[in-house]
Amino acid sequence: MSKLYIVPTPIGNLEDMTFRAIKVLKEVDLILAEDTRTSGKLLKHFEIATHMHSHHMHNEHKTVENLVKRLQAGETIALISDAGTPAISDPGFLLTRACVENGIDVECLPGATAFVPALVNSGLPNDKFVFEGFLPDKKGRQTRFLALQEEYRTMIFYVSPHKLNKTLAEFAQYFGADRSVSVSRELSKLHEETVRGTAEEVLKHFEAKPAKGEIVVVVGGKSLK
Q: What is the spatial distance between Cα 168 and Cα 159, in angstroms, rounded to a whole number?
């Protein structure tokens, strides 16, 4: 029976791979991988021999129609990204939407994603939060910051290492130097670290010790007092 499986993969520690994810990847007809070289190492580790095709942000617009046809013909397909849950700041949304529109079953397995442990680690309120992902690089960046000045929920951002200090400085500028910030990097990996403090304090920390690796920044919302 045709179905698209959305399968999370570890964000660093291979022990976070679930038994169910391995089972699905072994049983489907095809695996769609963001980078077949990266995913090839994962599949080899878990002795998964299923054929892979490349599916990434540069080709997903072109491949969706053909993949839908394959699913309609009865194939089962699993979508994975380089790390974490597909479609969360990664390719996957377009194919998922096309399947839903065409009445094809979609099933997303629970599993690893970077922003959840970062949010919990932060110590900031997590009963209400907003996931912002990556901020615009240039066009629309200031507009986004101005809009978020009134956000009272905890905010979550993905930030590349070389933009971290600039982004922290912008948080201090737009939200205030005393706004609570938590930076988690290399989650689940050997050098995992979470730095908490005000925007000003966290910026000083990373100015003295430049960050490396995958980074999630959690920012407290505007006080309602």
A: 10
Distance between CA atoms of 158 and 161, rounded to whole angstroms?
A: 10
SS3 track for 78-142: EEECCCECCCCCCCCHHHHHHHHHCCCCEEECCCCCCHHHHHHHHCCCCCCEEEEECCCCCCCHH
CA distances from 44 to 19, 33, 39, 89, 183 (A): 15, 14, 9, 25, 32
Give residue-wise pLDDT tens across range 31-89: 999 999 999 999 999 999 999 999 987 788 888 999 999 999 999 999 999 999 999 98
Whole-structure pTM value: 0.92
Cα dihedral value 5, 94, 159, 120, nearest 10: -40
Distance CA 155, CA 119 (A): 9
Question: Residues 92-115, buried b or exposed e (16+ Cβ, 10 A)?
Answer: bebbbebbeeeebebebbebbbbb
Instruction: Tell which phi-psi region holds residue 135, choosing left (phi > 0), alpha (psi between -120 and 50) or beta.
Output: beta
Q: Residues 9-36: what's their mean pLDDT?
A: 96
